[in-house]
Design a protein that fits this description.
The chain has three helices and four strands; from the N terminus they run αβααβββ. By secondary structure, the protein is α+β, with helices and mostly antiparallel strands. Belongs to the TCTP family.
């Protein structure tokens, strides 16, 4: 049998690395468009969260863009960049390089089994 090695979340959810964003500018354009979609969704479902979301998102965008070169980006199997693009970076934790996968929680949908 063939074994596959990699980050569990990436493998288990069949995420695919995307190279669609070659620079900060293209990623910023994507992110602004994606955030508009999330704001529209929030206005419909949780209007009281919109202002806090916008404020926090500006801070988060600056953080992400400051570390853009260290990030890997992943999409679902469909490779649809109109949906959420997950971010992964490696951080030093207790002397080990650990993969950290980041998602925008407002862009996730809960599935109940």
């Amino acid at each position: 049998t063939a074994t596959e090695s990699g980050v569990d979340v990436v493998l288990n959810h069949r995420l695919c690395e995307t190279f669609a964003f070659s620079d900060k500018k293209s990623y910023t354009l994507y992110l602004k468009d994606y955030m508009k979609k999330l704001v529209a969704k929030l206005e419909e479902k949780s209007p009281e969260q919109v202002e806090v979301f916008k404020t926090n998102m500006n801070k988060v965008m600056k953080e992400i863009l400051s570390r853009f070169k260290e990030m890997q980006m992943f999409t679902g199997e469909s490779m649809d960049c109109d949906g959420m693009v997950a971010l992964m970076e490696y951080r030093e934790i207790d002397g080990e390089s650990v993969p950290i996968l980041m998602f925008f929680k407002h862009g996730l949908e809960e599935e109940k089994f």
